[in-house]
Design goal:
Elements (H helix, E strand, L loop, with lengths): L11 H5 L2 E4 L3 E6 L8 E6 L2 H10 L10 E5 L4 H12 L3 E6 L7 H13 L9 E5 L5 H11 L3 E4 L6 H6 L1 H21 L4 E4 L5
Parallel strand pairs: 4-5, 4-7, 5-6, 7-8
Antiparallel strand pairs: 1-2, 2-3
Bound molecules: nicotinamide-adenine-dinucleotide.
Length: 201
């Protein structure tokens, strides 16, 4: 990893353009409920130490210029909402998602269909979807070369504690091997900004 990599780290709400508001004890993140499930407000209690951390994280201003963003896990719950927010504010998006069956694949397919419906036929190039594994190095290199990725939002992951005990190897594959490969490629292709919001590790 060289000094050009990961030079700026924005919080997920900033990257996605979410509005975050503070009050004394709670952080409220409003997402603009959008028809592909899971809209609404998220409110969680925070300690004072977390408040300081959150304030520091929010000192990075949201990026407003055009960019091309690779969203890994873009068919998933959080990823599909991030993709919608990025498209909404004018960025182009490349999704890679292996569409695994950790839960009903139809939900992921309908997320992709919904996102594709957001770009008109004239703007098809604004959203590119690759079905594949982030550990497939050949595919990933091709995506970086052909798509000219500038930013990365890495959300592809295996989530869930209990299944990780039952089958740890798929977790090591996606969460550790996949993330390591992505960081290496981010360095190699001089990615400006890498957001890693995953809590699955
Ligand atoms: N959902 C939540 O409430 C929540 C809260 C906090 C943190 N997180 C974390 O955010 C991350 C994403 O969560 P989510 O709820 O969107 O999960 P999700 O399962 O809905 O989405 C993850 C996506 O990654 C894809 N994926 C997994 N391994 C892959 C691989 N090797 N190659 C390509 N694609 C792959 C899956 O097919 C899936 O579509 C996870 O790390 C999760 O722990 C989630």
């Amino acid at each position: 990893m060289n000094d050009n990599t990961l030079s700026r780290v924005a919080s997920l709400p900033q990257l996605a353009g979410f509005q975050a508001t503070n009050n004394k004890d709670n952080l409220t993140i409003n997402n603009h409920g959008n028809g592909h499930g899971h809209g609404g407000n998220i409110v969680r209690s925070r300690s004072s130490a977390e408040l300081v951390d959150a304030d520091e994280a929010h000192s990075v201003q949201p990026h407003t210029g055009y960019k091309k963003v690779l969203v890994t896990g873009g068919a998933g719950f959080i990823g599909s909402h991030v993709v919608e927010a990025l498209l909404d504010r004018g960025d182009d998006v490349v999704i890679i998602d292996e569409m695994n069956d950790y839960y009903d694949v139809l939900i992921k397919e309908s997320n992709i269909q919904y996102l594709q419906s957001l770009v008109t036929s004239r703007d098809r190039h604004r959203l590119v979807f690759y079905k594949g594994d982030i550990c497939d190095e050949e595919l990933m290199i091709r995506i970086f070369q052909e798509e000219k990725i500038e930013w990365i939002c890495h959300l592809a992951a295996r989530a869930g504690v209990r299944p990780s005990i039952e089958d740890p190897f798929v977790y090591i594959h996606s969460n550790i091997r996949g993330t390591t490969l992505l960081l290496e490629l981010a360095s190699k292709f001089k990615i400006e900004n890498f957001v890693f919001a995953s809590s699955s590790r």
